[in-house]
């Protein structure tokens, strides 16, 4: 028996009315989210527009670091490792629009290869001992590192001893994150990178754009870049940052703990760091 069409091609069958209502409701939700800026693509664009906004770093005319300076923290790495800058690791779920647009706390940090002064990579050297703004930062003097105001909310770089539920997700070392409260957990100090000259430099002004160690005051562990611990962030492939001191066979800290606090060139030629050091090429791999 041959098949014979009973309904016309345009006849509506099944739960056509219910399907139409569901489609109309989906379209209504879409336009409501679009009007409020809540679509995924809108949230991503909003995050990038705010967190990648350029920031002017401080200019050090005397070659030293001062309280109130806006700097970038850059790990140069070794011969086969490119530059990496300490960065705010925020995604679309880390952003709030009430009462004003900004980053939620606590917020993670990471190290990326984008050496560009912006809200994501700029930190302010902040006094915790009453030193006036503009005064010179010295070796072994306590200070805090704070993000810029506005969208970055002026959060403090913080760390603490690792516990059962509080640790760096990849390495298991001490977690480094941003918090809105200042306490002993957010206090740091700078020491000379060479252990043999550390005592001699104690109490002396810290030079800008020079290799140093950044030590967490409570745990006495050094800020570290982990080139073997990969993170996927809103900005792409980056690496984990923790507080852990890596020592070589001579009891000296390794390059994972070496940081440069970068300032702008007084001549207006960008970062002082980039004038004297060339980054690794794209063909060179991280170690």
DSSP summary: helix tally: 4
What's the oligomerization state?
A: single chain
Order of helices and strands: HHEEEEEEEEEEHEEEEH
Shape: elongated
Helix content: 10-25%
Give me the count of strands: 14
The biggest beta sheet is recorded as: 12 strands, antiparallel
The first-to-last residue Cα distance is: 73 Å
On the 0-100 scale, what is the average pLDDT?
84
Which structural class should the secondary elements be placed in? alpha+beta
| Radius of gyration from the alpha-carbon trace, in angstroms | 25 Å
Low-pLDDT residue intervals, each spanning 5 or more residues = 276-287
Strand fraction equals 25-35%
List keywords for this structure.
14 strands, 27% strand, two-stranded antiparallel sheet, 14% helix, 4 helices, disordered C terminus, 287 residues, 12-stranded antiparallel sheet, alpha+beta
Please give a structural write-up.
The chain has helices at residues 16-36, 40-51, 198-201, 273-276, and strands at residues 70-75, 84-89, 95-96, 102-103, 107-112, 122-127, 143-147, 156-159, 174-179, 188-192, 211-216, 223-233, 236-243, 259-262. It is α+β, with helices and mostly antiparallel strands. A hairpin with a 2-residue loop joins strand 12 (223-233) and strand 13. 36% of the residues are buried.
Blueprint of the fold:
Elements: H1 16-36, H2 40-51, E1 70-75, E2 84-89, E3 95-96, E4 102-103, E5 107-112, E6 122-127, E7 143-147, E8 156-159, E9 174-179, E10 188-192, H3 198-201, E11 211-216, E12 223-233, E13 236-243, E14 259-262, H4 273-276
Antiparallel strand pairs: 1-2, 1-6, 1-14, 2-5, 3-4, 5-9, 6-7, 8-9, 9-13, 10-11, 11-14, 12-13
């Amino acid at each position: 028996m041959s098949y014979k069409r009973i309904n016309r091609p345009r006849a509506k069958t099944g739960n056509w009315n219910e399907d139409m209502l569901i489609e109309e409701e989906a379209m209504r939700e879409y336009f409501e989210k679009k009007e409020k800026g809540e679509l995924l693509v809108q949230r991503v664009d909003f995050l990038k527009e705010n967190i990648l906004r350029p920031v002017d770093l401080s200019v050090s005319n005397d070659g030293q670091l001062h309280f109130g300076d806006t700097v970038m923290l850059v790990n140069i790495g070794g011969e086969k490792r490119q530059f990496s800058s300490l960065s705010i690791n925020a995604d679309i779920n880390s952003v709030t629009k009430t009462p004003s647009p900004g980053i939620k706390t606590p917020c993670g940090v990471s190290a990326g290869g984008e050496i560009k002064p912006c809200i994501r990579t700029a930190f302010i050297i902040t006094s915790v001992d009453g030193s006036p703004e503009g005064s010179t930062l010295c070796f072994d003097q306590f200070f805090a590192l704070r993000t810029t105001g506005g969208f970055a909310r002026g959060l403090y770089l913080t760390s603490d001893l690792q516990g059962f539920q509080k640790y760096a997700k990849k390495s298991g070392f001490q977690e480094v994150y941003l918090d809105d409260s200042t306490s002993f957990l957010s206090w740091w100090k700078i020491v000379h990178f060479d252990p043999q000259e550390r005592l001699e430099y104690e109490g002396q002004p810290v030079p800008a754009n020079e290799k140093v160690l950044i030590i967490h005051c409570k745990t006495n562990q050094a800020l570290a870049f982990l080139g073997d611990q990969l993170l996927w962030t809103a900005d792409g492939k980056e690496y984990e940052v923790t507080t852990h001191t890596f020592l070589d066979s001579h009891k000296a800290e390794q390059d994972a703990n070496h940081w440069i606090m970068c300032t702008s060139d007084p001549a207006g030629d960008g970062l002082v760091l980039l004038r004297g050091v060339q980054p690794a090429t794209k063909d060179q791999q991280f170690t």
